[in-house]
Amino acid sequence: MISVQLFIPCFVDQLYPQTGMNMVKVLEKLGCTVSYNPNQTCCGQPAFNSGYRKEAQSVAKKFIHDFSQNSYIVSPSGSCTGYVRNFYGKLFNDSSEHNLSNMVCSNMFEFTEFLTQVLKVTDIGAEMEAKATYHDACGALRECGIKQGPRTLLSHVRGLELLEMDECETCCGFGGTFAIKYEPISIGMAQTKVKSALKTGAKYIISTDVSCLMHLQGYINHNNLPLQTIHIADVLASGW
Fold first, then answer.
1. CA distances in angstroms from 200 to 97, 133, 204, 240, listed in the order given
2. Whole-model pTM over 0.90
3. What pLDDT, in 10s, does the model give residues 129-148?
4. Both ends of the chain: CA-CA distance in Å?
5. Which long-range contacts (CB under 8 A, 24 or more apart) does 84-88 make?
6. pLDDT tens-digit profile of 165-191?
7. Is the Cα torsion angle 131, 118, 22, 212 positive or negative in sign?
8. Nearest alpha-carbon partner for 82 in 110, 54, 56
9. Residues 221 and 177 in one domain
């Protein structure tokens, strides 16, 4: 029996709670014992990316103490996972929190990464009758090196036809505060991504990060386009 601590990112907690519940559904089906610490908050990425290093360190300190149990930490976000892994070391280097930070970072896994690399699972038994395309979220791809795993999982979803789009690795344009500070550029990047997805004939865009999907869905809705975004946890929890 594998013990798993859940880290639920801000966007999932506040806007897409069902995605978190579906992640639990999949993990429990695969025999994991899942726990959730209700004291957990943000990982601190927004503050860090905005240049507020001291504030980010304060939030990160709470994070590592909230997850001080030495067991796997699984999150439905490549962005948060990549941030913790790649930047906590810089925040706690040569500090009394250094060893705890290193332990937490080594325990941290993005959801699909955990399924394929730790549990060694490729077929969840999911079913979804649809044509879909996959968006490589920047955090998952560039910070965690996640590329083939999600596609392998999706290839085993019965009824799902996965169509690769030309711009699969191109940023969607969200980037947290980037979308606020540079709105016209952000919208243009979303347009490129959505046009590429539509070109495949897909009806769904699937990804590891709801922040990307929220941004793309906003563009889709604003332009009344025949496309829907969905997190991979929601896909893998469907049909059973």
1. 48, 8, 10, 28
2. yes
3. 999 999 999 999 999 999 99
4. 22
5. 84/43, 84/60, 84/108, 85/143, 85/144, 86/143, 87/48, 88/60, 88/64
6. 999 999 999 988 888 899 999 999 999
7. negative
8. 110
9. yes
Question: In a 3-state reduction of DSSP, which class is residue 69?
Answer: coil
Q: Which domain holds residue 66?
A: 3-117
Residues 73 and 88 grouped into a single domain: yes
Give the integer Cα–Cα distance in Å for 53 and 184.
27
Q: Specify whether 50 is located in the same domain as 104.
A: yes
R_g over Cα of the chain: 18
Question: How far is it, in rounded angstroms, from Cα 192 to Cα 66?
Answer: 39
106 & 149 share domain: no
Phi/psi region, residue 131 (left: phi>0; alpha: psi -120 to 50; beta: rest), is beta
- For residue 196, what are its two tokens? 């590429």
